[in-house]
Design brief:
alpha/beta, five-stranded parallel sheet, globular
C-alpha cells in the first residue's frame, strides 16, 4: 500500500519536474521503469502507475510531451487473470508529442512515431509510424461560435462525397 502511494507521488513529481535528460528518467527508474542511457522524457509524460516495471525504454530514446504509456486496462485491484502488458521501446526511438502507447507493444529500434499517434501494435524497426494526414470531412455552413448553438452547427454540416469537390470549393 505505502509503496503504491509513494510510486504515484514520484510519478506526479516526474511529470512536472525539470530535467528531461536526467532527473525525470531517474525518478521513473526509482519507480521501476527500465530506462537506458541518454533518454529524454518530456514533461507531462504518463508511464503506467500500477506496473511501471513492465515498461522498458532503451538507450537514446525521446519520449515526447504528454505521451502516455499504458501496460494494463483493468480497474481496481489486480485481477488474477492479468497478463503482463509489457511495453518495450528499443534503442534510438523517437516518440512525438501527444502519443498513446497501449499494452503489449514493442517499438522497434530507430522507429519514429508521428505526433498524436495511438500505437496499438508492434512497430517494425526503422519505420516512420503514424496515422494518415487529416483531411476535410465536411463543409461548415454554420460556425461553431457562441452565437450559434451546437445543434445549429450539426444541422449545418454538409458531408463531403469526394475529396476533389472540397478542393474545387463545391458542396458535397
Amino acid at each position: 500500500m505505502f509503496k503504491n502511494i509513494l510510486n504515484r507521488l514520484i510519478h506526479k513529481i516526474a511529470a512536472l519536474a525539470p530535467g528531461g535528460h536526467n532527473f525525470r528518467p531517474w525518478l521513473h527508474r526509482m519507480r521501476g521503469v527500465k530506462i537506458g542511457d541518454n533518454v529524454w522524457i518530456s514533461q507531462f509524460v504518463y508511464i503506467d502507475e500500477l506496473h511501471p516495471e513492465a515498461v522498458t525504454i532503451d538507450d537514446n530514446c525521446t519520449i515526447g510531451l504528454r505521451t502516455s504509456i499504458f501496460t494494463h486496462f483493468y480497474w481496481g485491484p489486480r485481477r488474477a487473470d492479468y497478463n503482463d502488458g509489457k511495453v518495450v521501446i528499443e534503442k534510438d526511438v523517437f516518440i512525438g508529442p501527444h502519443c498513446v502507447v497501449l499494452p503489449n507493444v514493442r517499438i522497434g529500434e530507430g522507429a519514429v512515431i508521428k505526433a498524436g499517434s495511438v500505437v496499438t501494435r508492434d512497430v517494425p524497426p526503422h519505420t516512420f509510424w503514424g496515422p494518415p494526414p487529416c483531411e476535410a470531412l465536411g463543409r461548415v455552413t454554420v460556425p461553431l461560435t457562441p452565437e450559434h448553438p451546437y445543434e445549429e452547427f450539426i444541422a449545418g454540416l454538409k458531408p463531403l462525397r469526394r475529396r476533389k469537390r472540397m478542393e474545387e470549393g463545391k458542396d458535397g
